[in-house]
Amino acid sequence: MPLKKARTGKRGGMMSKAANIERLRLKARGLWVKACKHDLIDPREKFVAFLPGNPWDEKYNKAMERYIKAYYDHYHTVPL
Predict the structure, then answer these.
(1) Domain boundaries, given as residue ranges, for the chain
(2) Phi, psi for 14 (deg, rounded to 5)
(3) pTM of the model as a whole
(4) Is the pLDDT of residue 41 over 80?
(5) What is d(CA 9, CA 11) in angstroms, rounded to the nearest whole number?
C-alpha cells in the first residue's frame, strides 16, 4: 500500500497540529450546517436531534469524533 503524502501548509511545510485541529473543526461545522439545513433547523441552535434518514448525520458524528480526538491528543482536554 502506498504511503499517503503528508499535508502541507501554504509554505510547503508540515501542517501544524493546531492548523489540522482547526481544519477538522471547520469540516465538522460545515457538516453541522448541512445536517441542520436538511432538517430545516437553524444551524445556530446548540442542541438538536436530526431526523432518521438525514444523510449528513453520520458524517457529522464521525467528523466530530475526529476533531475531538485530535483536540484532546494535542491539548489533553476536550473542547468546550
Answers:
(1) 17-75
(2) -65, 140
(3) 0.78
(4) yes
(5) 5
